């Protein structure tokens, strides 16, 4: 419940701080006194959009702060999931800065408006006559029936499964599209992959082939050069090897005369050995060279295949082609995996649909049982509110579509008088009738579910006398299990409250301000007497006020 409200620099309120109690609280005041300002401030606490024009002094910030006692609201999980400190005395604050920027806080933690709106659903419900049209909303009608049917837990299970079902359906549609696209590309991708597989490329192959091609393509020039080099090295009289051996023989004669000569001999000896090895290698290379036009043609064909595929796939190496081959293989394999994933998702969706159907049937069956109970209770309450011939025809039919709360389609039909045809609430019920129906609905709701603090904003418009007394009694009865506020112009309802607040305007110098005051017992008698007779209070009005209060 809301335990206190403070307002600073908002509309006609300069500064206001008021405490509230549980039970049934009344708020009265002249038209234009500022009741709508109080509701506007509470609207900001609910997360509604802020308006810079609401600031009284444009140079200072506006602050609205409300304290809520939430120990019985089971909201610890909500606070934990949203990473907010949980306090049994939870404080919600809204600030509107002179710049127009708005800020929101829950227990001093900054939050966005969406989170504030979600929390406020658990804390406070402001109901005005204009909102009685919500009764025509199918979601609200289902909420009423499901509260009586005790469907909440089943609907939560259903919604959890439905969320997974929708997610799987979305994934399946995405996979089916991917499969369709992949099938279109599969033939071409398979062709490209086979082309690379048949080429049987190996890493480093291009360099080896290019080297071999150069040898075979220039075999005559290479052989001629090798043979010529070998001849020069081994010419019998003037060859390099013959001359090196002569040099070695000459040095052997003087090697013992000095270390330098011996060193030269050793170096020439090494040179002779190395050069001998070189001449042998020249001969071996020459012997290995074979003029093989067929092999040259095969290598040329393989190289042309490499070059063509590199150009086709826009790479510059065999390694690049091997990567393309691996990618194509994966893409072809993915199609097989897609088929497996699609099959698994299809099975999962079918399994979830079976569970959803079972839960939807349970929800439907419970609603069928609850509808007569709701109809009887509404008729009983409305009979006391001056609608003795009211009838309801609540029709429920199970469809094929998975909706957010089951598979049911609902028609909530209403007839106010005998002999009149049933019609949809929004078309056949008057404003006064809708007010009384909504009050009856809230009274039933209060019994079957934990409603938040409930504020009735002049829903008594269009009723008076005994009906107003009955409405007041219903609200008072509701206040036994929840906190109720009623903003009213009717003394019959005002007299039913446990406490009574008055909204009024005052003038301070050239400034007009709205104020909210808790009335004493004597002040309350006078206020109700004024509601009965006007500004001039007669003795009979005072006596009537006392009678109503007693």
Automatic annotation (TrEMBL):
Start and end residues of each RecF/RecN/SMC N-terminal domain: 2-507
CDD domains xrefs: ABC_RecN
Residues of the signal peptide: none
InterPro entries: DNA_recomb/repair_RecN (IPR004604), P-loop_NTPase (IPR027417), RecF/RecN/SMC_N (IPR003395)
Record key words, sorted: ATP-binding, DNA damage, DNA repair, Nucleotide-binding
Family label: Belongs to the RecN family.
Function: May be involved in recombinational repair of damaged DNA.
Protein name: DNA repair protein RecN
Source organism: Flavobacterium frigidarium
């Amino acid at each position: 419940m809301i335990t206190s409200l403070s307002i600073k620099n908002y509309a006609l309120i300069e500064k206001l701080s008021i405490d509230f109690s549980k039970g049934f609280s009344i708020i009265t005041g002249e038209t234009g006194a500022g009741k709508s300002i109080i509701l506007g401030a509470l609207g900001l606490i609910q997360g509604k959009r802020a308006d810079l024009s609401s600031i009284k002094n444009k140079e200072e910030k506006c602050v609205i702060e409300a304290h809520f006692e939430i120990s019985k609201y089971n909201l610890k999980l909500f606070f934990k999931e949203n990473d907010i400190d949980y306090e049994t005395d939870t404080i919600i604050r809204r600030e509107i800065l002179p710049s127009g920027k708005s800020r929101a806080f829950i227990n001093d933690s900054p939050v966005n408006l969406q989170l504030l709106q979600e929390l406020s659903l658990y804390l406070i419900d402001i109901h005005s006559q204009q909102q009685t049209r919500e009764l025509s909303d199918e979601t609200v009608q289902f909420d009423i029936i499901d509260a009586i049917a005790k469907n909440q837990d089943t609907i939560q299970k259903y919604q959890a499964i439905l969320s997974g079902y929708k997610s799987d359906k979305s994934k399946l549609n995405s996979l089916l599209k991917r499969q369709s696209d992949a099938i279109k590309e599969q033939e071409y991708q398979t062709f490209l992959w086979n082309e690379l597989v048949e080429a049987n490329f190996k890493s480093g192959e291009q360099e080896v082939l290019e080297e071999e091609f150069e040898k075979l393509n220039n075999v005559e020039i290479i052989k001629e050069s090798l043979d010529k080099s070998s001849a020069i090295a081994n010419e019998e009289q003037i060859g390099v090897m013959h001359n090196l051996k002569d040099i070695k023989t000459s040095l052997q004669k003087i090697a013992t005369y000095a270390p330098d000569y011996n060193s030269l001999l050793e170096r020439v000896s090494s040179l002779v050995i190395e050069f001998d090895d070189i001449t042998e290698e020249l001969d071996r290379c020459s012997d290995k060279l074979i003029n093989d036009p067929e092999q040259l043609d095969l290598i040329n064909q393989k190289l042309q295949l490499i070059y063509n595929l590199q150009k086709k796939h826009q790479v510059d190496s065999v390694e690049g082609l091997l990567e393309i081959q691996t990618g194509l293989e994966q893409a072809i394999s993915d199609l097989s995996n897609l088929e497996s994933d699609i099959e698994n998702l299809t099975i999962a969706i079918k399994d979830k649909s079976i569970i959803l159907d079972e839960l939807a049937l349970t929800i439907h069956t419970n609603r069928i049982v609850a509808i007569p109970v709701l109809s009887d209770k509404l008729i009983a309450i409305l009979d006391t509110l001056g609608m003795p011939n009211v009838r309801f025809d609540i029709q429920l039919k199970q469809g094929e579509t998975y909706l957010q709360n089951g598979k049911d389609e609902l028609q909530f039909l209403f007839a106010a008088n005998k002999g009149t045809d049933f019609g949809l609430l929004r078309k056949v019920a008057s404003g006064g009738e809708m007010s009384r129906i909504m009050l009856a609905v809230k009274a039933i709701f209060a019994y079957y579910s934990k409603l938040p603090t409930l504020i009735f904003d002049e829903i008594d418009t269009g009723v008076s006398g005994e009906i107003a007394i009955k409405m007041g009694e219903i609200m008072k009865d509701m206040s036994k299990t929840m906190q109720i506020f009623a903003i009213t112009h009717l003394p019959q309802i005002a007299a039913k409250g446990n406490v009574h607040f008055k909204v009024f305007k005052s003038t301070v110098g050239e400034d007009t301000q709205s104020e909210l005051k808790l009335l004493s017992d004597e002040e309350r008698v006078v206020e109700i007497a004024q509601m009965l007779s006007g500004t001039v209070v007669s003795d009979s009005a005072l006596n009537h006020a006392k009678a109503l209060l007693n």
